[in-house]
Description:
single chain; alpha/beta; Dihydrofolate Reductase, subunit A; eight-stranded mixed sheet; two-stranded antiparallel sheet; globular
Amino acid sequence: MRKLSYYVAASIDGFIGAPDGDAEFLNRFVVGDLLDYLRTEQADTLSTMARQYFGVDDQPLSQYDTVIQGRASYDIALREGNTRPYAHLRELVASRTLTESPDPEVEIVSGDVVGRVRELKKEDGLAIYLCGGANLAGQLRDEVDELVIKTYPVILGDGMRMFDTGFRMDEFTLISMRSFDNGVIVRKYART
């Protein structure tokens, strides 16, 4: 069975973006050994444009072959005229308002997103990359099998949380932790 992996960047205090969802300010940390790690070990999670820019667009998929993202995350690419930001992956966008896909290769999931992810998990293939949106992560919270959290050395104090849900404790086990020269720490957890 495939797993759903929530691969996300967060501040020390657990926010994935400003209150409006913007997280561009974290890009200044994507340098040095962290950049090398992303290019060599996490290339599946890079947008197709980033893969081309960093010269890894011909690198075969190793961890993920499918991405699901929320409408707000997808809108970032659409504003740039990019209808398929993860063209190297099978793309799904969860949206209650987007009724028709702007790209024939992008599946819009407007109904039961949990049911659709459960169907995906039963298929053969690599893991499913949950690419963001606190709302979508909140809806899929019970389906998340793995958390990969890139913790950036900043405190935001307020903003978009990792999961847009109420209080409830879910236990995960730390699988690995890696630190980088710029203070970023990447932790991988598996659901207990």
